[in-house]
Amino acid sequence: MFWMVVNRVALKDRREDVGISQRELARRAKISSGYMSQLESGDRKTCGPAVANRISEALDSRMGAIFFKSDAHNIEQLIKMVDESCKAAEGEAA
């Protein structure tokens, strides 16, 4: 079993580039708007590969541009690395 770790900055940037709301992206990806909000805010760090695929398709994007594949052995380390990268990107944007 593996999980997809979301890069919340890449997710938000791509969604805004496409010009749709979180609610519309959630509808297209067939997930709840609350779930989408959690992924984009960083409250939820991971999702399953099927959800990551649906989000990527809804954004007409490669999955690897928004998500990182992780197994149980490296998930905590990968989450930490992605969080640090997102915080740095958010700091640069401010």
Oligomer: single chain
Beta strands, count:
3
Annotation field: number of helices: 5
Largest sheet descriptor: 3 strands, antiparallel
Q: Give average pLDDT, whole number.
A: 92
- Approximately how much beta-strand content do the residues carry? 5-15%
The class by helix and strand makeup works out as alpha+beta
Tally of distinct domains: 1
Tell me the radius of gyration.
12 Å
> What is the percent of helical residues?
55-70%
Query: Judging by the overall fold, what is the CATH architecture?
Result: Orthogonal Bundle
H/E series: EHHHEHEH
Q: What is the terminal-to-terminal distance?
A: 37 Å
- Any low-confidence stretches, pLDDT <50, length ≥5? none
Kindly report the name of the CATH homologous superfamily: lambda repressor-like DNA-binding domains
CATH class: Mainly Alpha
Shape label: globular
Describe the structure.
- With 94 residues, this protein is α+β, with helices and mostly antiparallel strands.
- It has a single domain, classed as 434 Repressor (Amino-terminal Domain), CATH 1.10.260.
- Helix content is 61%, strand content 13%.
- The protein has a 3-stranded antiparallel beta sheet.
- Helix 2 crosses helix 4.
- It is globular, with a radius of gyration of 12 Å.
